[in-house]
Amino acid sequence: MAAAPNAKPITLSEEREVVRTPLRDAWDQFKRNKLAVISGIFIILLIVVSLTADVWRSLGTIDDPNFQHRGSSYADPMTCTTDLRRMNPSWCFMAGTDGLGRDLFSRVVYGSRVSLAVGFVGTITSMTFGVVYGVIAGFYGGRIDNLMMRFVDFMYALPGLPLIILFRTFFKELENYPEQAGDFGRWLIQVNRNMGGLLFIFIVIGLLSWIGVARLARGQVLSAKNKEYVESARAIGARNRRIIFIHILPNIMGPLIVVAAASIPGFMFTEAALSYLGLGVNPPTPSWGDMINEAQVRGFASAQHLVIAPGLAFSLTLLAFNYLGDGLRDALDPSLRGS
Amino acid sequence: MFPLAGLMFGREYRAVVEAATNPQVQIRDAKGRDTILQVRGLKKHFPISAGFIIQREVGAIKAVDGLDFDVFRGETLGLVGESGCGKSTTGRTILQLYRPTAGTVNFEGTELSHLRGEALRKMRRHMQMIFQDPYASLNPRMSVGRIISEPLYVHNIGTPQERMDRVQFLMEKVGLNPYFVNRYPHEFSGGQRQRIGIARALALSPSLIVADEPISALDVSIQAQVVNLLQDLQREFNLTYLFIAHDLSMVRHICDRVAVMYLGKIVELGPSEEVYNNPRHPYTQALLSAVPVPDPEVEKKRQRIILRGDVPSPANPPVGCNFNTRCPVAVETCFRDEPELKEIVPGHWVACHLSN
Q: Which CATH architecture best describes the domain A35-61+69-336?
């Protein structure tokens, strides 16, 4: 039964009406979860707004977040009575101003940059280190695995938040004495200053967050490693690199992405907690945690609007990321569905 | 033999394959048969370790404990035995998916147990494996085309178009519609998936295929189809099979010779008809007496030999003959000396003190 001599050669791309790839299945499943889709749209909008904040400012829709309007401290939402030369009158003080006369709405918009940056950079750092660490430990196994995981156990035993606060305090002090740091330290401090204090927050958060990912990745690799298709790849003669990147990683990506999406609000929360404790970004940089802290310090009993704008933005964002994470989990890791 | 052979790869590649598949050393036994695989004293022990942080080895599971056998070119050697007797471990150890604890595996004149890294990787082209579970042995994230062409890709053979031609050819050979080349494994039934696995094993034109219970996960109606396919392919491509199974009647149907394993050792080895009609080892006799006969008259009279007890733990096999704890005819020697695998009749090997 030889092939028909004039049979059309088959190519990978054409001729198939619908290719049901695992990714496409996941996407169809994701689309079914309305809440997750809405959350995804919300998050995309949030990212767009935070990236284009400067454009909105140049249009006069929002204000310079650090400009102090004279005579407008604690202005109520929607007041338009004060010094408004910098904004279009119709957009003035949608959320009121804070004690220094800064427009709260503009600060919330700019504050989203800090939250999103911390969320994404924290996740990317922890995923990168954690996955590389976990895959090496899980794949090579034996003594290497034992050593690497004992180190992870050690890190796990350290209390997270106190350690973060400790490091953060250390870095805050370091910023005050750049002359005592070496060349590299001075350079770091300079970069950190230009980033409004974000760099050291990234470092502090990244220090501990990868260990959970490393454990998860290792466990996933261990279970994937013993699957028959990995053994068949070895029997074919595939190299370790190919086995890891083609056969193991794509099959453990689902749970990892789910954890990554779920960890974003955690990082935002850590940043907000640090800011709330006064250990967050450097003062003029707007951050949601910082604004909530300020609201409390300055007494929101008399000016409730101080906490409403940042609090609402923060809760909505966390909620959206959590629903998105749930949707991704259902779509990518069906074994966990409903848990 | 096959008109599309040249089309499949192009001349250069065929020359390379021919050079590589032609053995430098041909091992022939006394009767001049061409031995493709020579296994001597093969052992695979899995260590049992205990201890906190500092791991100590406290024992070993003797999954395979000293095997000697040859596989001749073009034949099908069946490896049968009950669960846990080391059949699958034997297959995997021969392919060096597990490294042997001791012993030699000589494949077409090359000693595999000494090969490392790149040399071993290159050798894998000539020996392939078909797996038991067609649901687990195909990467769910790869399309059928990528799965079947992966061996070619891994060994850097052919251009992408040549690989696709080869995939089409193989899919037709194993009875799959080449139109499904872009589908994913979860869209196929068990039998179709097993065909994909077979096509993948054939992609590199190997000379030896270890089939690890290739049909036991399939429906009975599909089993026959897959077995017939394997036989057709063997005839067409001059394949040699090491066929691991526990279905005795299926083994009788397709195997030229049969090796019966018990607790990591071969207890009987010989031509299928000889072993089935004239079993010498009490374990083989018990095993064969369990096969139902599709004839009610015969079935009524059939004497079953019921073995007492369980298979001993391979971590702590009995002294003397492995089988002495369950053997109905064991004598004193069986508890003292280990029987050797001896050739009772030419070609028929038995490891039993009582068989001479």
A: Orthogonal Bundle (1.10)
